[in-house]
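The records we work with from here on pair a chain with its fold. These numbers are not coordinates but entries in a learned vocabulary of local backbone shapes. To see the layout at work, look at the sequence and tokens printed below:
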Amino acid sequence: MGRALLVTALVGLTASEASAWPTSLVECLVRDARRLVPRSLARLIGEREKQVLEQTQHFPLLLSQAMTADLSSGQLAPETLSALEAEVDESLALFKELRVSDGLIRLGATLRIPADLSDPVLVAGPEGLPAGVAREYYAFIEANLGRLPVVLDDGAALKLARRQLPAYWQSLLDKSRADAPVLRAELYRGGRVVDHRALDWHSPVFAVAQVAYSRAVTGIAATWLVLWRDARGDMTRMRQPKEIQPTDRPPEGPTP
């Protein structure tokens, strides 16, 4: 009861400032994550993209509240992890019932878990970020998306076993918490929010955006693959990520 009251209080306190990846960026995350899974799964999710995105908005209320509290504290509680595992298992149950299309939609919608865990805005701690910082951070990503190199955050994650998912999700949260202070320092100076248009690829915000976006893409693909393997889906024709060498040259892409 105490935990439920705490969660409700946290939700009430942060509702005005809490944010998450905008829909336009979630669509991009989905499409980039599809490049890391077998072509059959990529196609099936692509055909149901609209329904998948709609399903992400229907997470159970209590689970959403528990996630809000745990993202703030930095630690996924055992009961939250159990609830998350039960949520992803719903897709497997649908496959077993031969409701394949419904199962694919639920599988696709699990993207919300790794996406939220990879978002430094949502894991900024109890104090959160100053008002307006989240808006400018997301606007910066959208303006520079064509320049952000999307890299494989963790190659081993694409080979996870089902039992490894909880620890992997916690690792996403741990990495993301280290990024939040950078946003606070770079996007809020002298008591004012910094306009994202004043920043370029030299800014630490660019590094955070690139790493967080890539982490989310990898996390989504990794979660999908765990469930797809358990559903005995087709694992053939899976692209091999291309290795690239670091460079000091500015990222290529359209001028914002």
In short: The first helix runs from residue 2 to 14. DSSP finds twelve helices and two strands in the chain.
